[in-house]
Design a protein that fits this description.
single chain; about 15% strand; 22 strands; alpha/beta
Amino acid sequence: MNKQRTENRHPLGTQNFANTWFDQGHFNGADFLFVLQRIAYKDFTLTGFGQATGGQHRAGQREMVLQVARALESRRHLLVQAGTGTGKSLAYLIPALQHAMTQEDPVVVATATLALQAQIMKRDAPRLVEALTDELPREPVVALVKGRSNYLCRHKVDGGYPGDEGEEALFTVADDGGVIGSATDGAAGPSSLLGKEVMYLRAWADQTETGDRDDLEVPVTDRAWRQVSVTAVDCLGASRCPQAEECFSERARADAADADVVVTNHAMLAISAFEGLAVLPAYSAVVVDEAHELQDRVTGAVTGQLSGSIVHGAATSLRRHTTVAVEDLIEAGAALDRAFTDTPSGLIAAGPDEVQEQALTGVLTAARQCLSDLGQDKDKEADADGGRQMARSRILEVLEVVERMLAARPEADFPEVLWATRPGHFEPGVGWQPGDETDPPQLYVAPLSVAGKLREGLFGKATTVLTSATLTVGSGERRFDSVAGDVGLAGPDAPKFEALDVGSPFDYPRQGVLYVARHLPRPGRTASPESLDELEALLRASRGGALGLFSSRRAAEDAAAEMRRRLGPKTTILCQGDATLSALVRQFAEEPDTSLFGTMSLWQGVDVPGNSLRLVVIDRIPFPRPDDPLSQARTRDVARHGGNGFMRISATHAAVRMAQGAGRLVRSVTDRGVVAVLDPRLATERYGGYITSALPDFWRTTDRDVVRGVLARLASGD
């Protein structure tokens, strides 16, 4: 984005370029000019941008631009619900650039998904900068910052770090960093898929300008990427790494330090807010897009994990790369497993008992001793030892998590939730296999609420704009209360905020139908014969073009297998896991009669306008799992304070997810189709209306004959 300014920045010229772009429907010309003139101040004007535009009227977008600009100028927090099709990324980028350049203070834009980051960096921001450049005192700079593990590490590529712990080295590295060969693959080079991927990454390292994994032309497995990347805790740091001047991550951060707008993700924002680490440039304004995800993303970023095997892995790393004695740490890890083996999977509501506390304290004491012994080594050459740094980071991580688990009490100021689980796995040809309850568990700890920390670390330090297509649940003046409470904008001493719903340019009652299969039985552990019959009838009527959103991977796979059997080989049904998600979505978009079944990543990750998507099927209301520890703990906490835990936690979660899933149907003004819900509770239970209120305002019916007729007409192009 930081490019040299020239007289002719686009072959069409700025005027024609802008017209070409906006003819596609991003902005309205004269009206949008008026808004821009109103929000412009000092010597910063955007009048030329308005004159260069044309296209559809988007009143919601214009209103959002104005309100975001006012919020940033007056330094007040703002919640903006902007429905699909509003063009909200541009609606906040314009005032963000304005604010950053007039105040000389960068604005951080945080998103939940890589897809939106890519959209901003590769489409929206470059086009906006191009169209506005002639009207600005200088060319604005937009930079992208990700976590270190997203960038290739030159030091690791050159042999400065060992490979994955417990694995054989893939290659022998010469003194100059070149690959000599592999002991197992011979002189011809690696034959395994992993080896080939790593060789590809090593060659790419000499060609790439960014080192960003998302810039790879050929995707690679996570295992392969780990061979050429390091986490933040494993990184040596710019002061110690011999490759610091060539570091892709450091280069990205240097670019961000001089940027007007810094694009990042919710996890990086969480680290900045919770831990106070300087992972982002200093900022006083933040825009959080996909804000309905903020609570879950922040929670995930700060969730800690511990087990005897993790402790043993830390000890092994120390033994491999240092001279520190680890016998006490190994024994403490074994004692930890013994203390928790009889603990059933699920929430540990009261925190660790006396025996468990002793075991955790034993791990804490042994880890502290190892860290102290490690610090006694003053060998300066060890500063650049990647293996030593990896060992140190693992001990530090164990220490941090153990301290949090020992403090996980309901009465704490910022209470944390402790739970145990035995992870299951997918077995080819068999399906999902649950974990063995006789095994020692994996232990997790996470905040009961992120509201307090976000209030202090984010809203207390920066003017914040939260936006999403799904910020409201229910109706009336309090429809923003749920998300506001989740992120720290509700309750005593909460910062003041304003809320705005700018609507959507789509005519939902004319473009879509919401069908609830009221006649079906309530969903059970597996799909009922009646629900499978209903799904078959819907697919036959629509002749494909269906996106199936299922509550579990098993449900998606079972439904795909059954529909393939019933509908025969002439009907193409793709299922998540058959190929990469991007490849599946691409095939689904290109083949109008193909259907795609999947789970949660499809509920938000599919943007397929046109006739290829004319039917969205939702198998059941997406309540959290009844045994989900965090949901249980949060439900109990709401009830303890006199609220309705089910409605506040489970029903609200389901409403937002349902809105996101139903929102896949209409992505342009010409889209038409049906959202079919195979869960009768949406029509029969009292909470059904609460959940439905979060959905787009489709025309609604429970008449299956009517819906099949609609689908048949859509399939024939009527």
